[in-house]
Every structure is written in C-alpha cells, then in structure tokens.
Amino acid sequence: MEKYREVGRQVKRVDARDKVTGRAMFTDDLCPKPCLVAKILHSTIGNGRVVSMDVTEAKAVPGVVAVFTCFDVPDTKFPVAGHPWYAASAAQKRDVADRKLLDDRVRIYGDNIAAVVAEDEVAANRALRKIKVEYEEYPVTYDPREAMQGTNPPVQEDKPDNIVGHTLAVTPEDKLKAMGYSSVEDAVRDPKYHHFAFHAFTGEQSQAHIEVCVSYCYEENGKLTCVSSTQIPHICRRIIGQALDIPWGSVRVIKPYIGGGFGTKQDIHFEPLNAWLCHQVGGRCVKLELSREECFWDTSGRQPKDFEVEASVGDDMRLHARSIKAWSNTGGYIHHGHALVLNSVNTFRWLYHTQEDAIRCEAWTVHTNGPHTGAMRAYGVPEGIWAAECLMGDIAHDMGWDGVEFRMKNAITPGYVDEFSPSNTISYRTDGLRACVERGKQLIGWDEKRQEYAHQDGPIRHGVGVAFLVYKTAVAPFALETSNCQITLNQDGTFQLQMGATEIGQGADTVFCQMAAEAIGVRTEDIHIVSTQDTDVAPYDPGAYASRQTFVSGTACKDAGQKMRRRILELAARLYPDFQGELDLRDHAVWDAAGNKVVDLPDLALEAYYNLHKTDQISTRGQATVHQNAIVTGCTFCDVTVDMPLAQVTVNKIVNVQDNGRLMNPKLVEQQMHGGMAQSIGFALSEELLVDPATGRVRNATLLDYKVPTAMDVPELIAENVETQDPMGPYGNKAVGETPIISPAPAIRDAILNATGVKFYEMPMTPQRLFEGFKREGLI
C-alpha cells in the first residue's frame, strides 16, 4: 500500500477549537438581531382542502407585519429533494416538482397553509392562533398497500393510483430455464430445498439533529440572500430560484457551521418560503426557525418500509433462490421518492448471492397521507440489510448452522458486478470483508460466547449476534457526481482551500485539508479552509450526501493540489534557472535534484505576489466528474442481555469492523463509527415516529416521547477497520460517513434470536413488541 505523509494522519479537527470554545458561528448566531420572525400555520387535518381562511384578527395583532395564506402565493410547484440537476429535460423528471410555498390542498397532517411575519416570535404565535380556517375534509390513508388501490381524490393529482415508482429486477429467463425453472417463485419453492418466508417492517426514524432547521433571508444589492443550515447550498440556491421563478444567479445561499443534519437538511424545506416572505416585506431580514416539534413532523425522516421475503437454501449452506417485495411509504410528497427503496432492494441483492442464486427484487414507492419522508443516514440501505439479515439469521438459527460460517458461504466476493446496474459500473474491487469478519469474531469472542450462551433457560438470558453490511459509495451511476475545488497560494507560503462540499459535523474540512496537503506536498497545518460555503464564491459542489464528499469532492481536491504543486515548481524553475534537474517540493521548500535548497516556500510566495517584472499569484481549480463507485463491506458483532419479563434488551458490547478503503484520518473514522453505532441502537430498539393511521398525526413529536439513546443506553463500542486500497478513491478511500449505522441493528436482532429463540421482524424492537413476541412463544 502506497505510503503517504498527510493522508492517514490522526490530525486534530480543524474546527475543533472553535466548536469546543463556542466560537463557531451557526445560522442563528449570525442572524441580525432584531429581525422579523416568520411562523407557519399548519393544517389540523390529514387530508382535504382549505375552503376559506379569515386572517382579519391575525393582522390586527400588535407587531404583525403581514399575513399570507395559501391563496396568496404563486401557483408554482418546485422540488425539495437534494438531487443534482440534469440539463436534459427527460432526466429532470426524477426531480419531481410537487410542492408549493403554501398549499390549499392538504395532503398530510400539519401541511403548510399560511404564514405570519411579525416583529417578534410572541406576536407571530399570537397571530397564528387567531387565523380561522374552514376545511373540506377527505378520508386519511396511511397504509401504502391500501393507497395503491387508489384513493378519491389521489394524494397527488398526477398519480391516480398513488404509485410514485415501481421497479422489477429478476434473473433472466434463459438462466432460469437452464436451472430448470419457469420463474424465480418456482425456484424459491422447489421442494428439494429448505424454504423460508416472512414479512418484515422498518419504521420512520427521525434524524433528531441538535440544531433545528433554521434560515434567515434578506435582500441586498438586488440579490436575495439566504443563510441556512443546509447540507446542499448550491442545490438550495437552484431550488429557491425555481420556487420563486427568478434567475438562479439572483439568489445567494450561505451555509455556516451546521449542528447535524443526517439527511433531513438534504431537502430544501422552508428556504424558498422564507425567501418569498422576505421579498414580500421589502427585503427586510426574516428568520424562519422550526420548533423541535415541527422538525419531527414537518421535515423528512426515514421512509417506513414493508418487506415480503422468501428464499430457498440447500444443505450445503448455499442460497438457491430469493425474492423480496418492498413497499415504501413516501407520505404526501415525493421528496427523494423511489431512490430510497431501490437502495434497499439493491443492497439486499448485492450482499449475499451465489452463482446458482436466482433473484427477484420488486419495489413500490407509494403516496399516503403520512408525514414527510426522505433521506436519512445510509439512504435506504439499513432497511434492505435488515430484511437480508433477518433472512440469514432465521436460516442459520433454524438449520443449526454457525451464523458467521453461513454468511461467509454466500457473501459478496471480489469481482462481483451488478448485472442490473447501468453500464455495469457497480462492482466490488477490493475485499476486506473476510479480514473484518475474522477480526470481529476475535474481538467479541464469538466461538466462546456461542458455546457459553447455549442451552440457556430462565427469565434473563444472554446472546451474541452478527450482521454484515454492503454500501455503494456516492450516487454514480444513477445520478451525476461532480465537484470543484479551488486552492490559492497565500503570501506566507500557506494555502487557502475553498470547497463547495460542506462540513456538516462529520470532519470533512479536516480531511480535505489533509488531501490537499498530500497533493501539494506540504503539511496539513499549512492549509487554511473556510467552513462556510457562499454560493457566490464557493466552487460548485452538490453537497453532503451519499458519503460522496471524500470520494468525489476529494478527487477534485487532489486535482487542485496536484495542479498547485506543478505551478509552484514551474514558477521556481522560471525564477531560479541556475538550479539543474527536476525540482521537488518538500519540507516547505523547493529542492533541486542534487538535494540543494532552491528557495523556501514563503520566500517564493512573496516573490510570486510582488515580483516587479511579472506577478504570478497562483490559484488552481480542481474538477471531478466521477462515473464509478466503490463498495464498502463490513460486519457488526454484539453481545446482549435480555430480560424477558421486563421486555428489556441491554446491549453490552458492539464491535463494528469495516473495510472503508484507505483511511484519511483514523480518529475521525472512529468517531463516525461510534456515532453511527449509537444511532443504530436507537433504530433497533426505540426510535420510531408513531403515526395515528386515522388522522396522519404524529403522536410523539418531542424529544421526551421520541426515544433517542442517551449515554446510559450506549455500551462499550469497539470500532476497527481493515484498510484496503480501492482503485477508484482519490487516495484509495471509500465511504465511511453512513456505513456505521447499517449493521448494528440487525446484529442486535440476531443476538436476541440467539438468546431467546424468538424471531422479530418489526424494527424498532420496542418493549411492547418484545413482550408480545416472548408471550407468543410462551416464554413469559
């Protein structure tokens, strides 16, 4: 593996001191005080239409500047999902415009129907309570399979059957005939093999980020400026322009530090409305900040998904045939739509397979009157891996096989190419999975604990479980992957690094500094980066999603750094022609081939800026358009204690070992893995937005009722990596930001199965569901 000086160092985060001392400025910190405050009136029905609205009393409240209703806004629809833009009009269809600033057509409980702008929050809230609304109410449908039969009226007018997307990937007919079958169903139910089938469910998990969604807007010099806590500032600029039907260049978006997003800030929820309100009040500064409750039910959590899974397996531990059907509930609006469940069924297909395996993957995404859903960490993959690992866990348990051995017999192998992917560009090139599994077994004590926990009885039992993961880095080949970076040589020989990619708390800025330093040949400490993105000056990048930034944006960063290195050496050769041979940049100086110092870098930089004959203020632009990807694999092992009478699971230890390619900064990777593991504990055992199916209303939209794991719930976490050198990453790296959340939840499920023999298919496995399962099996 190639040796690097800066890449791979455990460099301290470049933003650590400011964040620890409180100097880091977030959106609300930067907002001018005082400013106007905007608040939204939400519908109190889950499906219907606003017939009329009386705002007379609201306008009379002291301090109210203006009140706007769904009947006042432009009749313009726009998309909200953070998808890249496509110049070809046919490709733009994937970025569906189905939202209005305010809408008289109510599709979900809490839909946005009016807005108040006031001098302060108190006046705004008082005015909201005085708005009188008359509705025409329709029946609420929350079940996606029921909604597919059609509703009157449909949730979205252009989809009479409420189906957003439907896809089918199935083993070709000639291959099935060669196996002696007419269909995958025949193969799955072949009596010569062992048959397994179940129905699984994953609920709507909320991102529960610390900083709420907030923005403020003002007009200056004929330009509308929006400062927002967003993961996607350049896409935000475009969507504001679309929503207001104004040139995109007349919009400026600024992204300061962000207090967490995990996908919900990959949607443009309220920035367009805030921008429009700002314009309506003459360009005065308007702040629109969501309450914690609004963040739960009026932004976008993880799509709930139903799965029907069938499979057959031989006595040789080889999978023979598999089928998965998935129904994804996107709620009243498309947001990220069908892409999420596609990730679910695709990863189900990729993780386990054999050459003899016949596969059928079918998926639907459906509109209901449920709350918003969209991107959340790992973008549909945890749900697909849940279904895959429920299957593998069941088979190993029922057949009496070692769960690790069985999985390894069928796990993805190097050279795998997805036959259903566009241009066959989804392939598995570098394999650390086998080493990950061996290390994970050692760290958890797999063989010893399996033996120790065998033949338990009594109300309190112990179990050990395992789950594997697979994850595709970035969004190529399904969507555009591009990035730009700019590096400037400063007068003192340090460098200014400017990225369009966004730091959202994950440590991207630190890694970009390391990558740039490696490419130039200087220390990371010589790179200065500004975490704020300003679309007027920051180079274009779609933003933070799909674990793409180190992989795609890092490629642009490396490109700019290599160009900077060449420019510096070319300048030195021009200014100092007496030195012979190829010049080199190291130790903050330029050296000749004989090892003589040509010039210190600070002196060369001063000469570049202030040479009387010809100044050469060096700035380079790096660009990347990436068409390939890299597949991450790994595994999680966990140890649990199950108190069946109390229906309580205590997670004692989690071991997560992954192949993320080359690690850019091992300490940051460990931090990412710890955070993902903690989120996955919540997904496994407690986190779910509870929706009343009769009204569509979220029942637990507070941090008191939505059960996020606390420090008391997080056990010993062990995160390790098996490093490989992936040929597609700029420095051999793959994804890491989202992968740690994928496999801990099914590993916990597998440990509960090992401890109790009870199979659970609904996630989260709440005390109520655990109690019902233990009671059903006669254990309590």
UniProtKB/TrEMBL annotation:
InterPro entries: Ald_Oxase/Xan_DH_a/b (IPR000674), Ald_Oxase/Xan_DH_a/b_sf (IPR036856), Ald_Oxase/xanthine_DH-like (IPR016208), AldOxase/xan_DH_MoCoBD1 (IPR008274), AldOxase/xan_DH_MoCoBD2 (IPR046867), AldOxase/xan_DH_Mopterin-bd_sf (IPR037165), XdhA_XDHase (IPR050028)
Claim: rRNA-binding is one of the keywords in the record: no
A Pfam family assignment: Ald_Xan_dh_C
One cellular component term from this protein's GO annotations in UniProt: xanthine dehydrogenase complex
Keywords: Molybdenum, Oxidoreductase
GO function term, MF aspect, one: iron ion binding
Coiled coil: none
Segments forming domain Aldehyde oxidase/xanthine dehydrogenase a/b hammerhead: 21-139
PANTHER family xrefs: ALDEHYDE OXIDASE 1-RELATED (PTHR11908:SF132), XANTHINE DEHYDROGENASE (PTHR11908)
Protein name stated in the entry: Xanthine dehydrogenase molybdenum-binding subunit
Source lineage: Bacteria, Bacillati, Actinomycetota, Coriobacteriia, Coriobacteriales
